[in-house]
Amino acid sequence: MKSLQLFLLRVYIGLDFIHHFAEKFGLLGPQAYHDVVGYFHSVGFPPSMVLIGGLCEFGAFVGFTFGLFTRVAAVGTALYLVISLFAGHHQDFGFTWANPGGGWEYPTLWAFLCLSFVLTGGGRWSLDAWLKKYQPNGLRWLSA
Known about the structure:
Layout: H1 2-24, H2 30-42, H3 48-66, H4 70-87, H5 105-115, H6 117-120, H7 127-131
């Protein structure tokens, strides 16, 4: 049952990033893309950072959904979420995410949840588990 729980959590985390990278790649239409570029500008980032953010989110999608180098995806995604927390100034809006502007509670929760996969890896039902058979001994820590 523990394997199933980790599988469901991992896949949900990955799928949750589809909407995020899709808006940054312009896949949700021009208005959504314009809005995200405007938000990035409002917090001091140039438009090129939208693409970098989208690539980070796409990496989170692939890493978590398919369990591919899950530990690397976990660290990268948690780091991305913490950077986003501070770049969006959520620490200035208090703890509760429902506060105007969004507090730091929700992105911290997501970062912590993602980071927990450093301990477990991708699990039984992941590409990591399959790849483990083919990786050199020195790289097996990357897989489940």
